[in-house]
Design brief:
Elements (H helix, E strand, L loop, with lengths): L1 H4 L3 H12 L5 E8 L2 E11 L2 E9 L8 H15 L4 E3 L7 H9 L18
Length: 121
């Protein structure tokens, strides 16, 4: 994940701690092509719902079905584990990802945004 997302060592350490603290069933799906990571995602199941997280594809492998394969792998695991639905968050402007997820039957249910106080000078 750190390599595919360009994380610094500090960011990678934080990510490892966050993922390591997940207390519900969770799995990673990693696709290796020509000996290198091509696609990666993880999912966690809560109350019968698979929540996809951190779906990433190597930029050189985009539009080759890598994300589709890792998503499908997690869906299979979740189904075998008793999950009956799925969810995720994606940026509204990420058209390729939204198209991918729509192909899995996932549809937009709501939008949200973050607010924060202005920086005081």
């Amino acid at each position: 994940m750190a390599r595919l997302q360009g994380h610094t060592q500090a960011q990678a350490a934080i990510y490892r701690r966050i993922v390591g603290a997940i207390a519900i069933p969770a799995r990673f799906a990693l696709l290796i092509v020509d000996g290198a990571p091509a696609g990666l995602a993880y999912g966690a199941i809560h109350d019968g719902l698979l929540c996809y997280e951190s779906v990433i594809t190597d930029p050189r492998r985009r539009r080759q079905g890598c994300a589709r394969r890792v998503i499908a792998s997690l869906a299979s695991w979740a189904h075998d584990s008793g999950a009956t639905g799925a969810c995720l968050q994606v940026e509204a402007g990420n058209t390729p990802a939204r198209t991918l997820y729509q192909g899995f039957g996932l549809a937009e249910r709501y939008r949200y945004h973050y607010r924060r106080e202005p920086v005081q000078c």
